[in-house]
Every structure is written in structure tokens, then in C-alpha cells.
Write a structure and sequence with these properties.
Helix content is about 55%, strand content about 5%. The protein is α+β, with helices and mostly antiparallel strands and about 250 residues long. Strand 3 and strand 4 (about 60-65) form a beta hairpin. Strands 2-1-3-4 form a four-stranded mixed sheet, sandwiched between helices. The protein is built from twelve helices and four strands. It starts with a strand and ends in a 23-residue tail after the last helix. The chain has two domains: about 5-85, Glutaredoxin (3-Layer(aba) Sandwich), CATH 3.40.30.10; about 90-245, Glutathione S-transferase Yfyf (Class Pi), Chain A, domain 2 (Up-down Bundle), CATH 1.20.1050.
Length: about 250
């Protein structure tokens, strides 16, 4: 088998997607964790100009950038268990695309906005929990205490403005409804997990880390599915969003 090296950033949900697929395939790999802030330059160096986001995977030194591209290559490298089962490949690919393009950005923007607006002690604790289990080259406590300037840059880069975050919060019920529908249809949540399971559940698992959003997700099939796919997850954000920004209805 080729040498596989996954480059990750805590607690990136697309990185969790790639790692879950590697584990499903039973492939041996090394994970190298970057500290938030330093990752953009290192990713560009490894994966080419413009490829500054995680995850990235090198296969015998060949770079593959982005979670969907990584899953595609893993399927070629080790066809079984299938990430795109033949009987439902079209539906799985469309659900994976939706999870990547329409769901994934929401919990990411919320995280950077929250880290900017939490009090100092709450910010440090939220960052510390998010970093647990990762090796970022310096003590977790030190990294957690220095997260504010990184959050400012990341919030700008990810367009985590008040307006965007309000829209993201308002969209949560519809997104959870969509996940529940995919589960009901059997596109995701089957006995054998697929690419869409990993792409979607990791985002829902991060949404569950927000105390403000639990009333809209807990008790739903989407929550059970997220915890099935992502068993160990430490991130947690206390109440931080203004009450009048939260959705007016829970997911149906």
C-alpha cells in the first residue's frame, strides 16, 4: 500500500470526514495536525497556491486536496467497503455534494463568530476543548489562550459576519429537515456508511456542539446519526448567539 499522510486542522469537520473514510477503508495513515493560523501557508506549500484549506492527503507524496477529492481517490485506492455503493451512487453523490457545498460552511462560520464573541475565559475553554486529541506542536493550553487573533483572521476569511451568521442560524431547521429526509429515504444511515454519511454527519456533529442549537437538533434522527458516525468529539460552545438571531421554530 502507498504511504498516506493526512494533513488536518482541529476541529475541522471536513478533516473528520476524510479520517472517517480512511478508517472505513482500513488504510494505514499518518495524521499531521497543523496549529490554527499556520495551516494556510503550510497547505499552500504542500498542495499548491490557492489550496490553503484542510484537509489534504498525500499518497506517496502525490497531493490530493479537499474532502470530496480525497474520498474519490480512496475509493479508487481501496474499492471495498464502497463509499459510493453502485445501487445508490447517484443519490449518494448528490447528498455528498449538498453536505459539502450547502451544509458544511454553516457550523464553520458559527465557530469563528462564537470564538470572537465569547468572553475571554469561555473562549479559552471552547478552544481547549476543540483542540483535545490533536498534536499541534505546542501545549493545548497555550494554543487555546492565543486563539483570539487567529479567530479574527479566520472570521474574515470565512465571511463570519453578523449578517451571514444570522442567515446561517435561520437555515438550521431546514438543513436538519433535509438530513432527516435523507435518512428516511435511506440515502444515508444504512448499515454500511457511505461518503454522504461522512460528509453530512460531521457537520451536524459540530452543530450539536453549540448549546444554542441543541433544541433544534436533539432528539432528531440527524442527531442520532451524527453521534453514530462521530463517536468521540470534544468541542463545545456555551450560549453565545443573541436570542433574536435564533430560529423561530425548531426543526419539524
Amino acid at each position: 500500500m502507498p504511504e498516506l499522510v493526512l494533513h488536518a486542522l482541529p476541529p475541522s469537520h471536513p478533516c473528520m470526514t476524510a479520517e472517517a473514510a480512511l478508517r472505513l477503508k482500513g488504510l494505514a495513515y499518518e495524521r499531521i495536525d497543523f496549529a490554527p493560523g499556520e495551516h494556510t501557508a503550510k497547505m499552500a506549500e504542500l498542495y499548491g497556491e490557492g489550496n490553503t484549506t484542510v484537509p489534504g492527503l498525500t499518497i506517496d507524496g502525490e497531493p490530493v486536496h479537499g474532502s470530496r477529492s480525497i474520498l474519490e481517490r480512496l475509493e479508487l485506492l481501496e474499492p471495498e467497503p464502497a463509499l459510493y455503493p453502485e445501487a445508490s451512487a447517484g443519490a449518494v453523490r448528490e447528498a455528498e455534494r449538498w453536505g459539502d457545498e450547502e451544509l458544511q460552511a454553516i457550523p464553520r462560520r458559527l465557530a469563528w463568530w462564537a470564538l470572537l464573541h465569547l468572553s475571554g475565559q469561555q473562549r479559552t475553554e471552547a478552544a481547549r476543548l476543540s483542540l483535545q486529541g490533536y498534536r499541534v506542536g505546542l501545549p493545548i493550553g497555550v494554543a487555546a489562550r492565543t486563539v483570539l487573533p487567529i479567530a479574527k483572521v479566520a472570521a474574515h476569511y470565512n465571511n463570519a459576519t453578523d449578517e451571514a451568521v444570522r442567515a446561517d442560524l435561520a437555515a438550521v431547521p431546514d438543513r436538519i429537515d433535509k438530513v432527516d429526509a435523507l435518512l428516511s429515504e435511506g440515502v444515508i444511515g444504512g448499515e454500511q456508511l457511505n461518503a454522504a454519511d461522512f460528509q453530512i454527519a460531521t457537520s451536524v456533529r459540530l452543530l450539536l456542539a453549540y448549546e444554542d442549537l441543541k433544541p433544534y437538533i436533539e432528539g432528531r434522527p440527524a442527531a442520532e446519526h451524527a453521534r453514530r458516525v462521530v463517536r468521540d468529539y470534544n468541542a463545545a460552545f456555551p450560549t453565545v448567539f443573541p436570542a433574536d438571531w435564533l430560529p423561530s421554530r425548531p426543526a419539524a
